[in-house]
């Protein structure tokens, strides 16, 4: 995979590498949402649960038409059936909850492993390749620090972009927390 040879006419940026690293960061922050959507697709209410819910509704409707005082034996029999079916529904819901948790954990691990492997690959193979080169005066006090490990001033490599992205995500999370806004941003660190 050659991401280096997609440079602009001025040679100051590697747009493909820039967008790949940006996409990795975006996907990393969207993993919880993607996992939630995947779990909703994979783990659904079974046909048995739907039938049991329908039976409970039917029995409750039947129970509403029976007088407790006049037909106590029939009323108690229907109530026992409702209790038994409700207990089975609770058991099925626990099984579905366990299944949901297992699928969610597995999907999260798979997403993060793929994302981590991609980032490690990019860091190892493109650590000396500029993602973007900015004018030196834009980065005056921090230019030499941001140019590590290449030493070229105003040179933004993948490590620098990851550091900036990580710091920005943490700052946004802290700001949202202090403002009382609920924001879910996750990182792969």
Your description of this structure?
With 189 residues, the protein is mostly helical. The chain has one domain. The chain has five helices and two strands; from the N terminus they run H-H-H-E-H-E-H. It has a two-stranded antiparallel ribbon. Helix 1 runs antiparallel to helix 3 and helix 2 runs antiparallel to helix 3. The C terminus is likely disordered. InterPro entries: Get1, Helix_hairpin_bin_sf. Keywords: Endoplasmic reticulum, Membrane, Transmembrane, Transmembrane helix. Belongs to the WRB/GET1 family. This is Guided entry of tail-anchored proteins factor 1. It is found in: Endoplasmic reticulum membrane.
Largest sheet: 2 strands, antiparallel
Low-confidence stretches: 4-12, 181-189
User: How far is the first residue's CA from the last residue's CA?
Assistant: 25 Å
Total beta strands: 2
Order of adjacent strands in the largest pleated sheet: 1-2
DSSP strand content: under 5%
Along the chain, the helix and strand elements come as HHHEHEH
Question: Into how many domains do the coordinates divide?
Answer: 1
- Note the total helix count: 5
What share of the residues lie within helices?
Answer: 55-70%
Give me the Rg, rounded: 28 Å
Mean pLDDT: 75
Described by the principal axes of the CA atoms, the overall outline is: rod-shaped
Given the helix and strand composition, which structural class is it?
Answer: mainly alpha
Membrane topology: Multi-pass membrane protein
Keywords: Endoplasmic reticulum, Membrane, Transmembrane, Transmembrane helix
InterPro entries: Get1, Helix_hairpin_bin_sf
Organism: Limulus polyphemus (Atlantic horseshoe crab)
């Amino acid at each position: 995979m050659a991401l280096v040879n997609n440079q602009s006419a001025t040679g100051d940026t590697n747009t493909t590498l820039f967008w790949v690293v940006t996409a990795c960061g975006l996907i990393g922050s969207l993993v919880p949402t993607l996992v939630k959507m995947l779990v909703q697709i994979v783990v659904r209410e079974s046909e048995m649960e739907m039938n049991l819910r329908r039976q409970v509704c039917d029995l409750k409707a039947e129970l509403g038409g029976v007088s407790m005082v006049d037909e106590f034996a029939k009323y108690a029999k229907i109530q026992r059936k409702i209790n038994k079916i409700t207990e089975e529904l609770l058991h099925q819901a626990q099984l579905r909850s366990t299944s949901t948790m297992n699928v969610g954990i597995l999907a999260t691990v798979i997403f993060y492993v793929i994302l981590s492997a991609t980032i490690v690959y990019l860091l190892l193979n493109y650590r000396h390749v500029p993602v973007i080169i900015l004018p030196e005066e834009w980065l005056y006090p921090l230019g030499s620090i941001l140019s590590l490990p290449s030493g070229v001033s105003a040179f933004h490599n993948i490590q620098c972009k990851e550091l900036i992205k990580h710091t920005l995500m943490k700052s946004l999370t802290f700001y949202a927390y202090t403002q009382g806004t609920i924001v879910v941003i996750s990182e792969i660190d």
